[in-house]
Amino acid sequence: MFAFIIRRAFQAIGVLLAVGIISFAMFRFAGDPVNQIVSLDTPAAEREQVRRSLGLDDPVPVQFARYLSSAVRGEFGVSYQFRQPVSDLLAERMPATLELALCATLFAIGFGVLMGVYSGLKRDSFLAKVFQTVSLIGISLPTFLIGILLIYLFSVILGWLPSYGRGDTVRIGWWTTGFLTTSGLKALIMPSITLGLFQMTLIMRIVRAEMLEVLRTDYIKFARARGLTTRAIHFGHALKNTLVPVITIVGLQFGSVIAFAIITETVFQWPGMGLLFVQAVQNVDIPIMAAYLMLVALIFVVINLAVDILYTVVDPRLRTSIRQPA
Amino acid sequence: MTQPVLSVRDLRVEFVTRRGILKAIDGISFDIGKGEVLGVVGESGAGKSVTGSAVIGLIDPPGRIAGGEILLSGMRIDNLPPEEMRRVRGKRIGMIFQDPLTSLNPLYRVSEQLVETIRTHTNLSASAARKRAIDLLAEVGIPAPERRIDSYPHEFSGGMRQRVVIALALCAEPELIIADEPTTALDVSVQAQIIALLKKLGREHGTAIMLVTHDMGVIAETADRVAVMYAGRIAEIGPVRDVVQNPLHPYAKGLMGAIPSLESDTDRLVQIPGSMPRLSAIPPGCPFNPRCPYVFDRCRVERPEPIQHSEHRVACHLYDQSSVRSEAVA
Amino acid sequence: MADAIQAAPAPQTQPTTWAGRFFDSDVWASFKRSKLTMAAAFLTLLFVAAAVLAGVVTPQDPFDPAQLELMNSRLPPIWSAEGQMPFLLGTDEQGRDILSAIFYGLRISLAVGILGVAFSATLGITLGLVAGYVGGTVDAVIMRIADVQLTFPAILIALLVDGVVKSVLGGQLDEVTTLSVLVFSIGLSFWVQYARTVRGSVMVEKNKDYIAAARLIGLPAPVIMVRHVLPNVLGPVLVIATINLALAIITEATLSFLGTGMPETMPSIGTLIRIGNNYLFSGEWWIVAFPGIALALLVLAINLLGDWLRDALNPKLR
């Protein structure tokens, strides 16, 4: 078990290193780090001096090592547009994105599992067919269209929910949260649905398929033969056995949730990292792009590691097989 | 005669498919008394397992019980509402399935599965239920049950797992146990132990056992009486010794002829030519007629009804007094 | 399942021409059976026709500023009171006819989608063939890159590539360059699936006797690969390509919506939605609604075709 997690951790470091190389290449070669210090009309001689002072004459591996060591300390240079350290910009925006991603994931799991279980148990019912159709449309509609549609319905026509921003936030240390105010919570609703809809349909389809699969197994038949109540069979025995694939999907998809937050945040002008990143791409602000890439990779790797550990909690068979590798 | 624990009367089970109605069970009747072991044999597809599922009320759509009665200690159970039937399952009828590897939920400890079952059917507290669970495991022969009870199913061997499955079936001291091919998936050496255990439990608790298997050896060793099934009907039913040594129905003869025996000096095993018809293509008259060596005209048109013949009941025109050719078999 | 059973008996006579073989195939049979698929195909054809015929059937060339009249700006669709001919679906703030803009926008969206898919398929198939056939370090490097890339969603890759290329090229880009950058970034985002599929197939075929035989008679390795392995993976590649076409179109629309794709002077469907989104609150819903509906229908139709193709080529997966 321990050895397994260590092995996974090494793989994770490998991924991070690979992403680090790409991030460094972007930072160093696609962008010109000198631009972080001086303005565009600085004379060439002065630029050359800055170049030397930044160590850009050193061999590339030395520069890469320097880049990595500062990245580990959370230093990613200075944004071209804002003239501020990238790490400050990202830290300021991170709570907004993480709160949004969390709500979207909870929404996706909650509704996805419920709808999936329902359509697995009552596969021929009218409602199950409605769910199936909705999920097909949910997969086909681009995220930003869903967002626009929701804004049109709930902000423009009904006027119930705000169409942009986080509402009022409360500062707790360096973290700002929208969970503690009514306007903050209201502002979370539409972006969360927009961001979570795709994941929700995915989870629904998987839970449904797994439910149908599990309900055919011998241990469910045996559970029925033991006279257990329908509820115990469906929600105790069947649902738990569908959890492993659901965890996989939620885990693997969390990276996508963060990435799709780019789109959702743009639609709702949500002041998170995604919006910062889109603005960086529009304005070719390479340091922000490079740092964002590293950060997303880090979040992704941590989540994957967490998923691996969660597996062993849910499925005892993995626990022993990991403890005693064959 | 005392009231039988299980009494099946003219049971019929159908499966509705797009291609028509398939008769999986077509009018079978039998009884099992207290402490008695009834063996049910036949080729795969003969309707043995469907019979078991019908008795415990686990025929799923598109299947349905199309007729007949099932009585458990005199109480009719085939038409109970689902919730009442659920209370009968596990409490009054226990069931054991073929494959112990897949019968247990891999994600729950054995203790959780046992306690859950016990508490579903009794008013025991959690700790009392756990104590009973340990006693049950000890009874089915699991060593150091108080330590093993918190293991997961995958931590047991196949034979041990089948013992756990039996313990689960015994949770509420049922009157009847249906064992559907309980030894088929096990090693030969373990098979004998499981059979011995079943026999012992049946004897000690007076439980009636319906033992479904295609293994004549297991039947000969375990059962008091045996029912030979063919294409959804009972071809012959009677005391196990009689049926094995002196089968009457031509199919039973063929089936017994297929068991090697030390006593008889036949040179080669008899083989039944052909194979059992598919449910969609059961011939009219006696379903066995295309393969029967003694077939005559009546077999092709008229369905044979069970006839009492000494201690056996046999569905064959050969034993009908009115049949002209009855003396042809000797 | 029943379909698979019915489709199982092979045709008795073997038609010789390509067309004959196609109309005799299971694929065609399953197409004729599904009304939904036929509707999707019809819709897709309609969109393609609209894109191809854009210059002929539309009243206006929305890419030509000379044809836009500010007088005609923000006109609602023809069925409302202020609607005016020939602007069937209304106009935007520059007096651009929405219907014409959609037709021309479809042209851009489909072009970027198809070129992007073609680029990613070529890249993916080549890398897959090389990885599978050469093996060793080359294989390891290519497949590790694929693994790492697969952990990131395509949209993120596309945005990054887009940003980096723009930074390298520098300055303001003209429309054709922007379009090429889009094709390039979408192509780089979607190659992994092709590479994995092709590599898997190469691994299977590599050890078969006929490859050894082909080698013995002196055929060079690349020829063997292309001639013998490619036909085997054509089905899966076609399915991936169809589904990826929908994804590529969505990606292009998303990039344009985010403001890193096609500029307003040469709008794709995504750009039109981006423009229209600004007028949502002032009541001019048609500027965003019709391009949105067009995009949704196009993607849905292609997805349905992809689903059908997957099932038809792979009856076992059903």
From TrEMBL, chain A:
The keyword Ubl conjugation does not apply. It comes from the Bacteria. CDD domains: TM_PBP2. SUPFAM superfamilies: MetI-like. The chain crosses the membrane at residues 12-30, 98-121, 133-160, 172-198, 243-268, 288-314. Pfam families: BPD_transp_1, BPD_transp_1_N. PROSITE patterns: ABC_TM1. It is found in: Cell membrane. Gene3D superfamilies: MetI-like. Keywords: Cell membrane, Membrane, Transmembrane, Transmembrane helix, Transport. It is a multi-pass membrane protein. Residues 94-311 form the ABC transmembrane type-1 domain. Belongs to the binding-protein-dependent transport system permease family. This is ABC transporter permease subunit.
From TrEMBL, chain B:
The keyword Aminoacyl-tRNA synthetase does not apply. One of its GO terms (molecular function) is ATP binding. Keywords: ATP-binding, Cell membrane, Membrane, Nucleotide-binding, Transport. PROSITE patterns: ABC_TRANSPORTER_1, ABC_TRANSPORTER_2. Its main location: membrane. It is found in: Cell inner membrane. It comes from the Bacteria. CDD domains: ABC_NikE_OppD_transporters (cd03257). InterPro entries: AAA+_ATPase, ABC_Ni/Peptide_Import, ABC_transporter-like_ATP-bd, ABC_transporter-like_CS, Oligopep_ABC_C, P-loop_NTPase. SUPFAM superfamilies: P-loop containing nucleoside triphosphate hydrolases. It is a peripheral membrane protein. Residues 8-256 form the ABC transporter domain. Belongs to the ABC transporter superfamily. PANTHER family: DIPEPTIDE TRANSPORT ATP-BINDING PROTEIN DPPD, OLIGOPEPTIDE TRANSPORT ATP-BINDING PROTEIN APPD. NCBIfam families: oligo_HPY (TIGR01727). This is ATP-binding cassette domain-containing protein.
UniProtKB/TrEMBL annotation, chain C:
It comes from the Bacteria. It is found in: Cell membrane. Its main location: membrane. Residues 106-306 form the ABC transmembrane type-1 domain. The chain crosses the membrane at residues 36-57, 110-135, 141-161, 173-192, 237-258, 285-309. It comes from Microvirga arsenatis. Pfam families: BPD_transp_1, OppC_N. This is ABC transporter permease subunit. The keyword Protease does not apply. Keywords: Cell membrane, Membrane, Transmembrane, Transmembrane helix, Transport. It is a multi-pass membrane protein. InterPro entries: BP-dependent_transpt_permease, MetI-like, MetI-like_sf, OppC_N. Belongs to the binding-protein-dependent transport system permease family. PANTHER family: ABC TRANSPORTER PERMEASE PROTEIN (PTHR43386:SF26), OLIGOPEPTIDE TRANSPORT SYSTEM PERMEASE PROTEIN APPC (PTHR43386).
